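Structure request: Thiamine-monophosphate kinase, Tunturiibacter empetritectus.
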Amino acid sequence: MLTVYAAISMKKPSHPFGELGLIEQIRRDFATSSSAVKLGIGDDCAILRPPPGCEVLVTTDFTLEGRHFRRDSHPPESVGHRCLARGLSDLAAMGATPIAAFLSLALPSTMLAESAGRTWTKSFFNGLRALAELHSVPLAGGDTSESPGGRSALILADIVLIGSAPKGKALRRSGASPGDALYVTGQLGGAAAELATMLKRRRRTPNNKAAKTTEDHPHMFPEPRLDVGEALQRRGLATACLDISDGLSTDLAHLCRASGVNAEIEQEALPIHPFAGKLDAPAALHAALHGGEDYELLFAAPSSVRLPSSLAGVPLTRIGTLKARRAGHPLMTLLAPDGSHTELKPGGWEHFSKPVRTPKKPPR
Ligand code: ADP
Ligand code: MG
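Returned structure:
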């Protein structure tokens, strides 16, 4: 898009390390033969062909430097992987099949002008592409811009995912009923535990090429549960579903409010990721309940339905039960091993929920 701000943002002739050079590189690296993309990168719009009988689902997610990642602690492959994983996880949560991704990217000028920056950019796209190929998701367009701020400019990415689901079949947060059982996929608390370890290190975590699985790197390389979401949707197993990217407690509250139910979580049933299991017991429980960024699915299913112990190769764990709304009763409760109940409050991630820190010396 042509920006109004002066000549610096006017289109320049193609340069191998400029905007047009980068877009050309992306176009080559992400060439697709997907039948759902009639026209991809290269024109003003992409043209998509959703499968007949399907509805189109759209989700968009920011990846902001300093908010979702740190350049000094996250390998660029992980930043690219997580950028796409965030959008794919939203599609998974609704039982949708990806059609295409769109990436709007603002980069500091150093990311194209300097060799270290170019390496970062290349690795970012390698991480994004590896996950895109794994799930056959074409990158069908986007926007590329230089972020303002010179040497202190930030990397900002916004990913849009387009998916499809058979008409009326997409999974929502709002369909659960009292008596339904609650399940999660995979394990909880691993992402928070890995992030804490990464931030304690002084240097950027090296990119271990051999291990890019949720088991080994729950924070750096989370695996969006697309196959589980699609299976739940196709087999009509779930009454409600969402992903728990903001933390189990926060996302469960969304399900409860949308479905008009209360929930009881059994502490002993929570599948704690081995990374969180290394913490002391209260910290492990906190990571599992409130940690966030596990990118697992939380779903409800009627108690009468016998669910397999795993779906699409991913373990399913029953972690609690939904109850009828009752005046004066908390939305969510935690059942401890000794049989006592305590209120479970949403303690995961919520933007704008923290007070703004006032600098000691106000800027002039
Ligand atoms: P316009 O100025 O018409 O918006 P651009 O020069 O921004 O066109 O983009 C040219 C083509 O490259 C478009 O098809 C656009 O979708 C694609 N594109 C631009 N940036 C990206 C990106 N970061 N990732 C993927 N495709 C991109
Ligand atoms: Mg554009």
